[in-house]
Design a protein that fits this description.
mainly alpha; 2 domains; 11 helices; 75% helix
Length: 284
């Protein structure tokens, strides 16, 4: 009788979990289907490879695509090394005291700060104080700072998940602390670190407020020539054509959203493939 009751409880629990999964997944699938259905008619080579015309009512979104790729790539290039080294220090070198606990608490709190606050911070620091101006560099640095807490938290947890015995064996063989981190800990923590990078990619590609203050141009039918130039970006471009441009075709709005989702999805797939390769090399 006890076995039958346990089996019944398990079935009920699995059914509830399955129902919760459907509640989460179905709205997402519905949104994706609506965007795909509404935006697919607008997707063609001209839409993806030409400059906007007629106040963005005609032409394509090529400058916005390139600007988004620049911003996302540079932001990860800036934030990933700094976040990784910060995580290594906090997990492998820093002592557990009041100061480090306060630092960890501050990092967790910063991960929940609104993106508008980061945008204003980037405007004050990079645009005005450091005189970078409204540029790709200012926008990428602002996005990098916004992504740092996510990368640090994910990397710290990935490093902490590596068994302590790996460190003990390496140190007992005469390796230094850094050699232990470099050759024993870090290779096994890379899948978790890449998870943080994936999350930062998605967030950087979809943010509007930070780039609104630091880089985004309303209408710029040309490509940037340096990191000190303004640029169009897909999130801000989508906001503008949805709220400020009257009589624009609906499929253009959905098509822009579809391209943005496609870029984020492609970057995530690339990162997931790399993460899967490193997971195969894990030693436990």
């Amino acid at each position: 009788m006890g076995g039958v009751k346990t089996t019944t409880k398990q079935k009920i629990a699995f059914s509830v979990l399955f129902l919760c999964t459907l509640i989460v997944v179905l709205p997402v699938l519905f949104v994706l289907w609506a965007i795909l259905k509404g935006g697919a008619p607008a997707i063609n080579w001209q839409f993806l490879s030409t400059m906007p015309r007629e106040g963005m009512r005609e032409g394509g979104i090529y400058p916005a695509i390139i600007g988004t790729i620049y911003l996302v790539s540079l932001s990860v290039l800036f934030s990933l090394p700094i976040g990784l080294f910060a995580a290594i220090y906090l997990n492998e070198y820093a002592k557990d005291n009041l100061l480090t606990r306060l630092i960890r608490l501050a990092i967790v709190n910063l991960s929940g700060v609104s993106s508008v606050v980061y945008g204003l911070f980037g405007l004050a620091l990079f645009v005005n104080f450091l005189k970078f101006g409204v540029s790709i560099l200012s926008g990428a640095l602002t996005l990098a700072i916004m992504n740092l807490p996510v990368i640090i938290i994910a990397s710290t947890e990935a490093l902490a998940s590596v068994p302590f015995s790996f460190r003990e064996v390496s140190l007992s063989l005469g390796a230094s602390r850094w050699q232990t981190v470099r050759y024993s800990v870090l290779p096994n923590a890379i899948p978790g670190i890449l998870t943080g990078a994936i999350l930062s990619l998605a967030r950087a590609a979809g943010e509007t407020a930070p780039i609104l203050f630091t880089v985004a141009a309303f209408y710029l039918p040309k490509l940037p020539k340096s990191i000190f130039d303004q640029a169009m970006a897909l999130p801000y471009h989508l906001y503008i054509i949805s709220t400020q441009i009257p009589n624009i075709k609906t499929e253009v709005r959905y098509g822009t959203a579809l391209v943005l989702i496609g870029i984020v999805f492609s970057m995530n797939i690339f990162a997931v493939v790399i993460r899967a390769k490193f997971r195969k090399k894990k030693k436990w």
